[in-house]
Specification:
Layout: H1 4-30, E1 33-39, E2 45-47, E3 51-60, E4 67-76, E5 82-92, E6 95-103, E7 111-121, E8 124-136, H2 143-188
Parallel strand pairs: 2-8
Antiparallel strand pairs: 1-3, 3-6, 4-5, 4-7, 7-8
């Protein structure tokens, strides 16, 4: 049998736990989403015209039911001007994690930028996540163009080699045919 002091202590702990639970529920009602956005280290420096790849992790802290949310993606310059944007709607229950991308405009100037992602539910912003990156000078020739040029040059060299080899083989065949005709004529005579 528990003493009165032990019962009071147990009751106090139960009330404290219940209070903390109610506080966490109230906080979840206030901001029911947790949003994390992370740009991969390989995309922290990107050329204008390229694709910015990132991961988005969303947790619905309050919900047990499936709901539709809208994600607004904005690329902001240092003055918070929008350089590019896109939106998508998706259904979420408790959590979601996915890889996304947004195209950097071809005419984007060099500098530091921020990817700002917002969760919007019923036209109300519920959560926001950010990560920064840099747009670097665009090379005059991208590596893809260089590879294509090298493949064309390699193909031309290979084609020239094949033509030269075929010429030699055809020349030898002509000589053999000529010799064969001469031998045939002499054997008839």
């Amino acid at each position: 049998m528990k003493s009165k002091q032990e019962k009071n202590k147990t009751l106090f702990i139960e009330i404290l736990v219940l209070g903390l639970l109610l506080l966490s529920l109230a906080a979840a009602q206030e901001n029911p989403f947790n949003l994390e956005v992370q740009i991969a280290d390989t995309h922290k420096n990107i050329q204008a015209g390229g694709e910015l790849w990132f991961t988005t992790k969303i947790m619905n802290l309050a919900g047990q039911q499936r709901m539709d949310i809208t994600l607004n993606y904005n690329i902001l310059d240092s003055q918070k001007n929008i350089l590019a944007s896109k939106s998508e709607t998706l259904a979420i229950e408790t959590q979601a994690s996915f890889v996304g991308n947004i195209k950097i405009p071809e005419n984007a100037p060099e500098g530091n930028y921020e990817l700002d992602v917002q969760i919007v539910v019923n036209n109300k912003e519920e959560a926001e996540g950010k990560d920064s990156f840099e747009i670097i000078k665009k090379d005059s020739k991208t590596s893809g163009q260089i590879i294509i040029i090298l493949l064309i040059i390699g193909g031309l060299i290979l084609l020239t080699f094949i033509i030269l080899v075929l010429k030699k083989i055809i020349g030898k065949l002509k000589i053999k045919l000529r010799i064969h005709e001469i031998v045939k004529k002499r054997m008839k005579n």
